[in-house]
Amino acid sequence: MPDSTDTPKTLHILNKAPDHSRFALCLAAQADGDTLLLIEDAVIALLDQQISLPMGTHALQADAQARGVGSTAEKHVDYAGFVALTEEHTRIINW
Amino acid sequence: MNTLIVIDRAPYGSWAGREGLDMAFSLAAFDQPVSLLLTGAGVHWAKRDQDATAIGQKTVAKNLSAAGLFGVESLQVDATSCERFGLTKEQLIAGCTLVESSQATLKQFDRVVFAN
Amino acid sequence: MNATPFPPRNNEGFLENPADWSPAVAQAIAQESDIELTEKHWEIIEFLRDFYKAHEVAPPSNRLFVKAVKETLGDARGDSIYLMTLFPGTPAKTACRIAGLPRPTNCL
């Protein structure tokens, strides 16, 4: 169980559109040093004027491309990058 | 590795929770430590006195109550969500533990998976 | 016509409706697999009947069947060799078929 004084960084994998109730919960759960990866329906949040995403939010390239969400300032990752992220984090939440 | 499966959807209307339950049972089958958390509308899973016969489904609380026998380590239920739906501990099936904060519970596990 | 017609079953020999089960039906299904039902078999069959009544589901896999038996009847019974000796093949499937439960969902 993680020690509270040294909480491990969490990878948050989010696949819900911004209007899904879990989207806001996920954003609220972001802690310093955590990583947010948007996949599937969640990538449209990159275009959502009403949503402010944490700095350095990642999005899965294939899902962004499928939905015509062009490259923005955010970091796009391919599937290998997705796997690498899961390896770099000891804690993962699939929202 | 400790896994928490979260069910936050109401029962019967979709397969989301049942898939979560299947995942929990499968992990338990292979002796992987796994717990369940019911929160939001998902707390209705644990209600006693359900009977889904008339809608042609299996009663979810009865399915859920097999979790302990299969080795699922704990069945946690969000207290605030229970309050919202006027549910007391007595109205829940045996083996439930009420938790004050779902957010704090999420932090206690290496892997957290929300049932779609 | 047979005096006690066999209740409807699926292509794998599982009862379509668990409520159609009776000890005589169990005997007949067991015979098809050359299993002579003993006290030891009946103990497990009874466990499965109770389990289904309480949980409305068959133990989904063989591993979970063994676990649930262990949890309920103790280590000696909840042992895969013991259960395989009583119910050859895939014990969860064979035992559920005889006990009139639906087919375990994850048993390949």
UniProtKB/TrEMBL annotation, chain A:
Top-level taxonomic group: Bacteria
Molecular function GO labels: transferase activity
Annotated GO biological process: tRNA wobble position uridine thiolation
Transmembrane segments: none
Coiled coil: none
Keywords: Transferase
SUPFAM superfamilies: DsrEFH-like
GO cellular component: sulfurtransferase complex
Keyword flag Transferase: yes
Name of protein: Sulfurtransferase complex subunit TusB
TrEMBL record, chain B:
Domain of life assignment: Bacteria
SUPFAM superfamilies per the UniProt record, alphabetical: DsrEFH-like
InterPro entries xref list: DsrEFH-like (IPR027396), Sulphur_relay_DsrE/F-like (IPR003787), Sulphur_relay_TusC/DsrF (IPR017462)
Coiled-coil zones: none
Pfam families: DsrE
Family, per entry: Belongs to the DsrF/TusC family.
Protein name: Sulfur reduction protein DsrE
TrEMBL record, chain C:
GO annotations of cellular component type: cytoplasm
Primary location class: cytoplasm
Organism field: Marinobacter fuscus
Organism ancestry: Bacteria, Pseudomonadati, Pseudomonadota, Gammaproteobacteria, Pseudomonadales
Gene Ontology process terms (BP): tRNA wobble position uridine thiolation
Molecular functions per Gene Ontology: sulfur carrier activity; transferase activity
Biological function: Part of a sulfur-relay system.
Family the UniProt entry places it in: Belongs to the dsrC/tusE family.
EC number(s) reported in the record: 2.8.1.-
Keywords carried by this UniProt record: Cytoplasm, Transferase
Active site annotation, chain numbering: C107 (cysteine persulfide intermediate)
Chain ranges passing through the membrane: none
Listed InterPro entries: DsrC-like_C, DsrC-like_dom_sf, DsrC-like_N, DsrC/TusE
Localization, UniProt: Cytoplasm
Keyword Kinase: no
Pfam families in the record: DsrC
Protein name (record): Sulfurtransferase
